[in-house]
Amino acid sequence: MKQKYQEIIKSVFSISSMIAIIGGFMVFVLFCIALIIGGKSGGNLAVLTSKVIMPYFIRSATVATMAGLLLAYSTGDHALTLKN
């Protein structure tokens, strides 16, 4: 049963990590487009990106971090142990 939970946590970690990485790239591209456009339209795009789009990817990164910590501590295979 513990192995099944670890596989589910590993899947959640993988999916949310990929969403966060792809989302970060999308935000980067949108900010670059906003810089190229410039003016009021570019400013509106940058504000839209930071206020509407970016929080979803930040939440995804938070879920990935939480799942990674749960996985590391549930398997006992983390770097913060004093075992030899």
Could you characterize what this model shows?
The protein is an all-alpha fold and 84 residues long. It has one domain (2-74). Helices cover 87% and strands 0% of the residues. It has two helices and no strands. The chain has helices spanning 2-37, 39-75. The protein starts with a helix and ends in a 9-residue tail after the last helix.
Number of E-type strands: 0
What ranges have pLDDT less than 50 throughout 5 or more consecutive residues? none
Overall pLDDT:
89
> What is the distance, rounded to the nearest whole angstrom, between the alpha carbons of the first and last residues?
28 Å
* Overall form: elongated
Helix content: over 70%
Count of discrete structural domains: 1
Quickly count the helices. 2
Key attributes of the depicted protein:
84 residues, mainly alpha, elongated
Annotate the secondary structure layout.
Layout: H1 2-37, H2 39-75
Helix pairs in contact: 1-2
Brief summary:
This protein has 84 residues and is mostly helical. The chain is 87% helix and 0% strand.
